[in-house]
Amino acid sequence: MLELVLRKGQHLGMEPEVVRTEMLQRRMAQSPEAVRRASEVVVRRLLALPELAGRLRIGAYLGVRGEVDPSALCHVDRLEVALPATTVGEPLRFVVPSGPLEEGPYGILQPGEGTEVVPLDLDVVVLPAVAVDRSGHRVGHGAGFYDRTFADRRDRTPPPVLIGVCHSFQVVENLDAGPWDVPLDLVVTDAGIIRRGMAHLRARMGED
After folding, report:
1. What is the rounded distance in angstroms from the CA atom of residue 18 to the CA atom of residue 173?
2. Starting at the edge strand that comes first in sequence, how are the strands of the sheet with 131-133 ordered?
3. Is the dihedral of CA 129, 119, 147, 90 positive or negative?
4. Residues sharing a CB contact under 8 Å with residue 152, sequence separation 6 or more, in sequence order
């Protein structure tokens, strides 16, 4: 077992806006080939998780602007994948598309028609992150869509499993989390898997 330990004090307790600015710059600087390779590794790790075993209805997203892109999950027969549809100021809607995707309010393709799924009825949600820490805290793009949508997920039994995906450089030591922030259950990167509360990031030798 290869253990990759984060550097002590990396972004320790930094404000989300500071981390967001830095990480967006680093993410946008990734080459398309680097993003493709990282995305392939992350999708492979996701499909090997026990949380994604069997026939499931999951939420995922289409990667843009240097994000790790999990859209290959849409082509896995045993998974029914709902994609987010955004309306400014409202919680996310999740829709299993049945037709062409349309451009949403942030310039991201989203379902124009299809079967809408209650977000809390999803088995697993794979969501993007601008930065994450080892406690499962997440910094997104700042609109708060995922936090609003899954704020009451513990009211559902079992609740949907929230899995954040990102490049390994987007994992920081500690983030200042607000009371409204919904923590992730797992984080999957091109370097390994972090389960909430773990003291280190683990990767199995040879997985890459």
Report:
1. 14
2. 138-139, 131-133, 171-172
3. positive
4. 120
Q: How confident is the model at residue 3 (pLDDT cuts 50, 70, 90)?
A: very low
| Residue 25 Cα distances to 15, 130, 157, angstroms | 16, 10, 39
Q: 2-203 domain in CATH 3.40.50.10420?
A: yes
Residue-wise burial string across 100-135, b where 16 or more C-beta atoms lie within 10 A, e elsewhere? ebeebeeebebbeebeebebeebbbbbbbbbbbbbb
Chain segment 120-167, per-residue pLDDT in tens? 999 999 999 999 988 888 888 766 788 888 888 777 888 999 999 999
Asked whether 36 and 66 are in contact (CB, 8 A), the reply is: no
3-state DSSP assignment of residue 105: coil
Examine residue 179 and say whether the peptide bond preceding it is cis (omega within 30 degrees of 0).
no
Q: Residue 85 has which token pair?
A: 């549809």
Q: Tokens 């994604």 identify what position?
A: 52
Q: b or e along 158-173 (b: 16 or more beta carbons within 10 Å of the residue's beta carbon)?
A: ebbbbbbbbbbbbbbb
The C-alpha atoms of residue 24 and residue 28 are separated, in whole angstroms, by 6
The C-alpha atoms of residue 140 and residue 132 are separated, in whole angstroms, by 9
List beta partners, residue 115.
Answer: 96
Residue found under tokens 């490049």:
167
